[in-house]
Amino acid sequence: MFEKNERMYTLGIIPARYGSSRFPGKPLIDLKGKSMIRRVYEGAEKCTLFNEVVVATDDQRIYDHVTSFGGKVMMTADVHQSGTDRCGEVLGHFPQADLVVNIQGDEPLVDARQLELLIRAFDDNSVQIATLGNPNLTHEDLNNPNRIKLVKNKADNALYFSRSAIPFGAKVPQEEWLSKFPYLRHIGLYAYRSQTLKELIQLAPADLELWESLEQLRWLYNGYAIRVVETEIETPNIDSPEDVETVLRML
User: Fold this and answer.
1) Which tens digit of pLDDT belongs to each residue from 153-205?
2) CATH number of the domain that residue 20 is part of
3) How far apart are CA 127 and CA 129, in angstroms?
4) What is the distance between the alpha carbons of residues 143 and 39, in angstroms, rounded to a whole number?
5) What's the rounded Cα separation, in Å, for the pair 229 and 70?
6) Strand (E) positions, the chain?
7) Is residue 171 included in any domain, yes or no?
């Protein structure tokens, strides 16, 4: 199925929960003849840098469905608070893995080029964690707390992530911010070296993380560097039933 990655064994994991406060059961919704989780799985398969792609779930319905279309799936504990924790459990079954990519299970149009960009970041041996940032923001994005913004340093490592507009243009009218500063919007795909992932899942929540409700702030608080790769490729995710129509129009 995949071209063997001789450089480093790369494992793609798609965490998928049935329960969701805003949209229960969304991994199994029908999107023009295929479930959302199947579209994510098949999109991830198109990235030839993966040695394996696995769905990680705590729900028997999702497990049975992935099995029915021939996908690889693993049942995980129902106590995990994040996709990162779920990825950490799956990693325990793949001791040969050098790199883990956490693929969002609610992005049915996931683009293999995004995944390749993320994996290629680890050609730099100093990279521990990598994620993506998009420079194409709107004024609405800046003020939307569900659109996460980030700031990076000159080494392309993240300084901070926030639901607020960062940085704040103290001397510039807000309508001019986008034309004056290269703002970045976070795209929630992550990749980790295996040893780093094992360490991350042992960390206690940090106050910054709890305040912003952003897990990656736990990693920054504890001194981990997060490499930010810029891309203009972005695909819509499905957080609520209202998002489905957007995706259907794009299929």
Assistant:
1) 999 999 999 999 999 999 999 999 999 999 999 998 999 999 999 999 999 99
2) 3.90.550.10
3) 6
4) 31
5) 32
6) 10-16, 30-31, 34-35, 52-57, 73-75, 99-102, 129-134, 149-152, 158-162, 184-193, 226-230
7) yes
Q: Per the domain annotation, does 246 fall within a domain?
A: no
Strand 10-16 relative to strand 158-162: parallel, antiparallel, unpaired? unpaired
Give the β-pairing of 184-193 and 149-152.
Answer: antiparallel
Residue 73's contacts (CB-CB under 8 Å, 6 or more residues apart) are 54, 55, 56, 57, 62, 63, 66, 67
Q: List Cβ neighbours of 178 (8 Å cut-off, separation of 6 or more).
A: 137, 138, 139, 142
Structural domain boundaries enclosing 209: 10-234
Contact 76, 67 (CB under 8 A): no
Structural domain count, the chain:
1
Q: What pLDDT digit, counting tens, does each position of 46-88 carry? A: 999 999 999 999 999 999 999 999 999 999 988 878 889 999 9
| Two tokens, residue 163 | 């639901």
> Residue 167: what residue type?
P
The residue behind tokens 């034309």 is: 179
In a domain, 99, yes or no: yes
Asked if omega into 167 is within 30° of 0 (cis), the reply is yes
* Residue 49 domain-assigned (yes or no): yes
CA neighbor of 38 nearest in space, from 74, 2, 68, 78: 68
Q: Position 39: which residue type? A: R
